[in-house]
Structure formats: C-alpha cells, structure tokens
Design goal:
The chain is built from two helices and four strands. It is of the alpha+beta class. Strand 2 and strand 3 form a beta hairpin. The mean pLDDT is about 95.
Length: about 100
C-alpha cells in the first residue's frame, strides 16, 4: 500500500449540499478501489491563481489515503468527468 494525497478544487458557486455530495462521491470512489482514507483536510473557499471556467474562487479539499498503485489512475479517470470538480491532482507521498 502506498500513501497518496488527492487535491480537489470544487466549484464555489454550487450549493453546500451539492459540494458535500461531490466530495462524498470522491471518498466513495477511493474506498471502492481499495483505498483507505486517513485524513480529509478542508481548506474552504480560496481565490484561484487564475480564472477557471469564468470562476475566480473554489473550495479546496485535500484527501490523504492509502491504496495500491493502480487505484489513483482509476480514481482520476472518474474524477475527471465530475462536473463540480474544477481541478484535481493525485500525488504519491513519500513515507
């Protein structure tokens, strides 16, 4: 099992319920592909470095999890098509 961190930037213009639902879906994806979530860090609404889809702000989430080496590709494949997610990045953490 490797340690990973998934950074998400979620649309700030959607309802709180829809934003929480999007993050829950991502957590469910991690668990579906054999990952174990160790920490979820919510940074809240932040200004984006540059405009994305005519938006200047987004909600930032950092999800740390343990998973096998093939899980991040599967997770990214599904997060890529989620509409409320503006940007994402999954990186392997050194132990």
């Amino acid at each position: 099992m490797n340690k990973y961190e998934l950074a998400l930037v979620v649309n700030a213009k959607i309802e709180d319920d829809a934003r929480a639902e999007a993050v829950d879906k991502v957590k469910a994806l991690i668990e579906r592909f054999g990952g174990t979530i160790t920490n979820v860090d919510e940074w809240g609404k932040r200004k984006l470095a540059y405009e994305i889809q005519k938006m200047k702000e987004g909600y930032y989430y950092f999800i740390q999890f343990d998973a096998s080496s093939d899980a991040p590709a599967e997770i990214e494949h599904r997060v890529r098509i989620m509409e409320p997610v503006l940007r994402y990045l999954c990186v392997r953490q050194d132990a």
